[in-house]
Amino acid sequence: MSEKPTKEDRDWSEDLMVTGNELVDRIKKLVAEGNVRRLIIRKPDGESLLEIPLTAGVAVGGAVTIMAPVLAAIGALAALLTEFKVEVVRSESSAGEKEKLDKS
């Protein structure tokens, strides 16, 4: 019997360096992508400033409206620092897995 992969097995993360003036726009784009599960905003030295968990419901339609208070807080953070490290935790979609299998 083969075990079904757990949700954690399909998650992966990436780090992005973002300047303060583009932080809010970058976060809006990441949320709109739909496969982002969590955003962690850090100082360049790695200290965590804000962690934003996202669900599939947030990522599907109306995400910017639902996230307006969070985006306001992010805008305030952006005014304080010039550079941020954004850790993006993504969930691999089942469609992406199917494409990988088809290419093999």
Indicate the low-confidence ranges by residue numbers.
1-5, 94-104
Strand/helix succession: EHEEHHHEH
Give the class from helix and strand content and strand pairing: alpha+beta
Overall shape: globular
| Overall pLDDT confidence | 74
Helix percentage range? 40-55%
Task: Please outline the major beta sheet.
Answer: 4 strands, antiparallel
Report the span from N to C terminus.
22 Å
Radius of gyration: 16 Å
Query: Which strand order do you get reading across the main beta sheet?
Result: 1-4-2-3
Please count the helical segments. 5
The total count of strands amounts to 4
Strand content: 25-35%
Number of domains: 1
Secondary-structure map with pairings?
Blueprint: E1 11-19, H1 23-33, E2 36-42, E3 48-53, H2 56-59, H3 63-66, H4 68-80, E4 83-91, H5 94-103
Antiparallel strand pairs: 1-4, 2-3, 2-4
